[in-house]
Amino acid sequence: MTPAAGITAAARAMDRGLALFPLPAGSAVPAPGWQQRTTLDQDELPRLLADGGNVGVGCRASRVVALDLDDPSSGMKDWPSTFTVSTPHGGLHMYFRVPADCTIGSFSGPQSPLGPRIDVRGPGRRSGGYLVGPGSVVGGLPYLVVRDVPVAPLPDWLTGRLRKRWQEMPPTTCPIREAVAEERWTAVRRLEKHCAGAARHHRGPGRPRPAA
């Protein structure tokens, strides 16, 4: 992806009200304190994407809950139409608007109330989660806007399911601990997804999947 194409893709996210922050070049893992660096100022995009840098979408600053679908063909099919980004290994990031007082947090893997292959990133109680934003490149492959429509409100049925699961989890009393836990868990999940994608690429379409 060229620098101009990266800026254009990131600008489309900002046009939809998504607040961005810098990620290191080629990386999906932010530096500590990324929550304080989110912005909706498009004049900042050349700086954010300088030297091949990536961008992340901060869920709390954007007032969104974001779904990270590893395999869009599995699980629920009738997702509402909303701003959507494709990921390097065939997944999707779907963004949904929530009220300013929404505290739905993040879930990954078996914790997710939507299934183990649908991670959730939310505004949380204090720091919130994030997803890698459009215009970014990880492992030589881009994150692309595939549905450039307004960010839809989070449907009631999703709100109820996510809120119920979130209320069952004990609150985190330390904001620093919440932020560190979120970043650590996200880094682990990114590494798992990268390894899984690399394994699929290595096997190729004609190679059998190894036995479990």
Based on the model shown, name its key terms.
three-stranded antiparallel sheet, alpha+beta, 11 strands, six-stranded mixed sheet, single chain, 212 residues
Can you put this structure into words, describing what you see?
- The chain is α+β, with helices and mostly antiparallel strands.
- 30% of the residues lie in helices and 19% in strands.
- The protein contains 5 helices and 11 strands, in the order αβαβαβββββββββαα.
- It has helices at residues 3-15, 45-48, 59-62, 156-168, 175-203; strands at residues 20-23, 54-58, 64-69, 84-86, 92-97, 118-121, 130-132, 137-138, 141-142, 144-147, 152-153.
- Strands 3, 4, 5, 6, 10 and 11 form a 6-stranded mixed sheet that branches. It has a 3-stranded antiparallel sheet with strand order 1-2-7. Strands 8-9 form a two-stranded antiparallel ribbon.
- It is globular, with a radius of gyration of 16 Å.
- The protein starts with a helix and ends in a 9-residue tail after the last helix.
- Mean pLDDT is 83; it is low at 173-181 and 207-212.
The quaternary organization reads as single chain
Main beta sheet? 6 strands, mixed
Record field, number of beta strands:
11
How confident is the prediction overall: mean pLDDT? 83
Strand content: 15-25%
Poorly predicted tracts of residues: 173-181, 207-212
**Gap between N and C termini:** 36 Å
Query: Topology as H/E string?
Result: HEHEHEEEEEEEEEHH
Radius of gyration, whole Å: 16 Å
Categorize the overall geometry.
globular
> Structural class, judged by helices and strands?
alpha+beta
Helical amount:
25-40%
Number of helices: 5
